[in-house]
Amino acid sequence: MKDGITEHRSFCNEERYLTSLLAEHGMPVLLHIKPANTIMAYKKYIENSSIFTGGLQKIAEEFDCRVSVLYENDTLLFLMLYQPEKLRTTLKLDKNRRFLCKYGYQSWQDSIDACIHTLSGRYRRYKEQGEGFPHEIGILLGYPIEDVEGFIKNKGENYLFRGCWKVYGNVEEAKEMFEQIRFAREFGRKFLS
């Protein structure tokens, strides 16, 4: 059994880890700049996955956001932090719906939970069965469809610009978004760390 000092130190380290992940990966979502982002948390820094995810969910709710577990194994916890209204709007775009249907998402799946469930299954098969990475995740993360399609078609090569993702479409629009994301991360580092 841990003594009080060790428990406190462990909690403080885990809390610091959570806030550093939020500062780096969560702020663009918490500030409603992006519809979603993924957070990869390594279990060697986490005492209890459920408590860690619950703590993240509690913070997310303060910003009208949610958290879903996409994948979990012995070493990592792969989460999606999302802002429901922005994600719902992204998923309702006809071009995004048609694109996602090509990857096993049903056209009637306009619920966020159903899309995340499909994505989670595809990611699990990628990790455990060696299937291809579910690049369509870019749509849920708010990347322009031109960039997601371009990345898949070009296998990550021949991009026009590289920032938070590889750009195959509108470079100027992407640069503006990258600047907003950079600002959100700096804000997070300053106020969460």
Folded structure, characterized:
By secondary structure, the chain is α+β, with helices and mostly antiparallel strands. The protein has one domain. 58% of the residues lie in helices and 13% in strands. The protein contains 8 helices and 5 strands. A 3-stranded antiparallel beta sheet has the order 1-3-2, with helices on both faces. A two-stranded antiparallel sheet has the order 4-5. Helix 1 packs across helix 2 and helix 1 (4-30) packs antiparallel against helix 8 (171-192). The chain is globular, with a radius of gyration of 17 Å. The model is unreliable at 1-11 (pLDDT under 50).
Summary of the model, kept short:
The chain has 8 helices and 5 strands; from the N terminus they run αβαββαααααββα. The protein is an alpha+beta fold.
What are the main properties of this structure?
alpha+beta, 13% strand, globular
Rg computed from alpha carbons, rounded to a whole number of angstroms = 17 Å
The 3D shape can be described as globular
Question: Order of strands across the widest beta sheet?
Answer: 1-3-2
| Cα-to-Cα separation, first versus last residue | 30 Å
* SS strand fraction: 5-15%
Please tell me the total number of domains.
1
Q: Note the main sheet.
A: 3 strands, antiparallel
Class from helix and strand fractions: alpha+beta
Count of DSSP H/I helices: 8
State the helical fraction: 55-70%
Number of strands: 5
Secondary-structure element series: HEHEEHHHHHEEH
**Average residue pLDDT:** 91
Poorly predicted regions: 1-11
